Amino acid sequence: MLVKQLSIFLENKRGRFTEVAKLLGEENINMTAFTVSENSDFGILRLIVSDTDKALQVLRNRKYAVTEADVICLHCPNLPGALGRAMNIITEAGIFIEYMYAFSEGDSAHVIIRPDDLEKCANVLMDNKLELIAANELYRL
Predict the structure, then answer these.
(1) Considering the entire predicted model, what is its pTM?
(2) What is the DSSP string of 44-112?
């Protein structure tokens, strides 16, 4: 139940995210979820897209520094305490979260998680009856 995520290293200057968004849009690649982190010199755009292989090819052809990584997508109710319950399960299992980001719509929330141990995290969440979203389901959202 892993999802492919892209990380693109961008100069921290005006218009760089716009360039990526336009390029992917022109190639009919949808950005399902994304987050941007930055420092004074560069930013990292992490994103889930509808066609990871095509996006990798397009971005590398345009000389972007891009990597691919597996992440977990947790589906949970968009209610107070739901994320806290999931995080408690992860913490009690001794799993470290490198980073995470989320998006919600209506009654549902989707949390992208990059743990230090992907397999253990996925198993612990499923063992506790929490729902993980597969890549093909996520891209349809």
Answers:
(1) 0.87
(2) EEEEEES-HHHHHHHHHHTT-EEEEEEEEEEEEESSTTHHHHHHHHHHHTTPPEEEEEEEEETTEEEEE
